# Entry
Amino acid sequence: MSFQQTFKALSDPTRREILDLLKSGKKSAGEIGEHFQMTGATISHHLSILKQANLITDEKSGKYIFYELNLTVFEEILSWIQSFQKEG
Amino acid sequence: MSFQQTFKALSDPTRREILDLLKSGKKSAGEIGEHFQMTGATISHHLSILKQANLITDEKSGKYIFYELNLTVFEEILSWIQSFQKEG
DNA sequence: GCTATATTTAGATAATTAGCTAAATATCTA
DNA sequence: TAGATATTTAGCTAATTATCTAAATATAGC
# Structure
């Protein structure tokens, strides 16, 4: 929820790679995990951190849980970054 | 230097606050430290991480070392964030 | 050269965290 | 209901890191 959580979530390369994967659309936890050489448990841990940071949303569908980017938080980070560029 | 270093550097609230302080112009390590209830050594450590991440530059002037924002890296993060917003 | 000031470096510690394995939960199908 | 699949939770460990104190380095002025 907090800004701090968002930045912490983004500071891990695996989590940023997960976000990159999700650019092409929603994916199940298993599909996401296939791209990494880590256990599903570890991926689940990362997904939970991204979710807490509001960077992704999840949606259950039968056996699967689908994850999707949540762009609203990206807006906030964008504004923060831009505040350094604008003079004044 | 790396993207990873930049994000790690940004993931600490003290370091983000240092960056915010530097928005108003260059400041010495001591001036920066005055805003925090931490030892100078700790602030120095944070400054070193920000410097390694290329988010700030330093300039020695007599007894003092002045730190200043380096905006070029902010551009890169901005692009990364924006890559999520553009569809495709 | 000596002393005071500004900052960093070194070394230690406590807290956080990324990863694992194993167990638990949930859903589907036979 | 039993078994298979998908995912999460719990508990552990090794690595990282934010912080401290103490020591080191550098500069200025007497």
Summary: Chain A has one domain: 3-82. The domain at 3-82 of chain A is CATH 1.10.10.10 (Arc Repressor Mutant, subunit A). Residues 12, 14, 38-39, 41-42, 45-46, 60, 62-64 of chain A lie near DNA strand C (CB under 10 Å from a C1'). The first helix of chain A runs from residue 3 to 10.
